[in-house]
Amino acid sequence: MSSNAKLVSRSVLVPFILVTSLFFAWGFANDITNPMVKAFSKIFRMSTTDGALVQLAFYGGYFAMAFPAALFIRKFSYKSGILVGLALYAIGALLFIPASETGLYFPFLIAYFILTCGLSFLETSSNPYILSMGDEATATRRLNLSQAFNPIGSLLGMFCAMNFIQARLNPMDTAERAQLSDAEFEAIKAADLDVLITPYVIVGLVILALFFIILFTRMPKNGDKDHSLHLGKVLKRILAIPRYREGVIAQFFYVGAQIMCWTFIIQYGTRIFTAQGMDEQAAEVLSQQYNIAAMAIFCISRFICTFLMKYISAGRLLMILAVAGSVLTLGVIGFQDITGLYCLVGVSACMSLMFPTIYGIALEGLGDDAKFGAAGLIMAILGGSVMPPLQAYLIDQGTIGGIPAVNASFVLPLICFLVIILYGYRSHTIHQKKEPVTPVA
After folding, report:
1. DSSP for 210-262?
2. Could you point out which of 21, 286, 326, 407 has its C-alpha 20 to 30 Å from the C-alpha of 344?
3. CB–CB of 134/142 below 8 Å?
4. Residues 330-333: contacts with CB within 8 Å, 24+ apart?
5. What is the pLDDT of residues 252-269, one digit of tens each?
């Protein structure tokens, strides 16, 4: 499995670094958002299911914009797609200012949707662009290296959510807020919304600065040779490849598992700590610390896995980690104390490899068709929109089968890992030989 091909050549090092910084940028957006399900539920006195609409809007933007982004990139260039993505990201973040002024929940959902339309452009552009920046033999390792900076952005997002949002919200818990008069509730809500928007406004300004840096930087033309828009022919061609087709399905379930594990670790930890007598806000902050620990483990594990891929095939390593993730998820369901939370933190080590590896396996050998292939894989991020509301619905049941519903709800991530095990196995065995790709007619 070892390859002597160079990972990144000196001639594309600066563009590689700039594009890799985008992985950091959308990691921040993803993981400052996950804790907002709990925050919005509290601020607007909503159920967990209603709060999870944040995830529906957030990951719905990925789904809605993936193929328009692919068409745009195919017509113009990867660089153009990145610039549009950064512009939409910044606009969505800055729209938190007027959303806060309305005092309503729906405008925040619109802001999240626009922001993630930008992230969809960025991911549809950046992932295949990184794959194209060098030898195909090292493409999946190169993408894993870039993706390793994604959880660093996620860590910063979690840190900001914990220290600049959750810790500064009014400490009054959900039950106490329900007893307030309308005037008292509106005053507290307005103050909390002012706290919530500040990090988004700052990141919006930073993204604008990054937009201008990339605008004036010379970027390589890799993969920008074919600007034809034979969408029907390309889709027919790539969907005929089992490795790609099954990769889209596996990616849907992986993203669903990831977002569920990171979103509802707050609810999972809060149940454990409040049962020990801790007040709700302190329990939420402590749970977020465990979430940060999970992300740190995820980050370290991704660098380790990128190294291991020099010696172990991508499909085999994917399968091994999915099996380990399934075992730990059984612990999350079965244990009702701190042991279950430790298992949930450990799941992140297993997830670290999955997104870029599924991505790299699925796009292998697609050439310029990778632009549309990338769109299908980004649309699969819809799993992060569909699955969390289902899990939130289960959590709202209180108990299921005699155990806390928050524990039982993790049967959904378990099912997701079983799908990934199957894809890893098929990638290592059935799809190990390269499948022929029909050239463009």
Report:
1. HHHHHHTS----TT-S-----HHHHHHHHHT-HHHHHHHHHHHHHHHHHHHHH
2. 21
3. yes
4. 330/414, 332/268, 332/407, 332/410, 332/413, 333/403, 333/407, 333/408, 333/410, 333/411, 333/414
5. 999 999 989 988 888 889
Instruction: Locate the domains of the chain by residue range.
Output: 10-428
Are the C-beta atoms of residues 348 and 265 closer than 8 Å to each other?
no
Give the CATH number of domain 10-428: 1.20.1250.20
**Dihedral class, residue 134 (left if φ above 0, else alpha if ψ from -120 to 50, else beta):** left
pLDDT of residue 3: 52
CA distance 100 to 102: 5
Q: How far apart are CA 417 and CA 116, in angstroms?
A: 25
Query: Which are the contacts of 68, defined by CB distance < 8 A and separation ≥ 6?
Result: none
pLDDT digits (tens, 9 = 90+) for 197-215: 888 999 999 999 999 999 9
Listing DSSP states for 161-195 in one string gives IIIIIGGGS----HHHHHTS-HHHHHHHHHHHHHH
Helix (H) or strand (E) holding 410: none
CB 351 within 8 Å of CB 325: yes
Bridge partners (DSSP) listed for residue 399:
404
Average pLDDT score, the chain: 84
Three-class SS of residue 66?
A: helix
pTM, whole model, 2 decimals?
0.74
Instruction: Show the low-confidence residues of the chain (pLDDT under 50).
Output: 1-2, 434-441
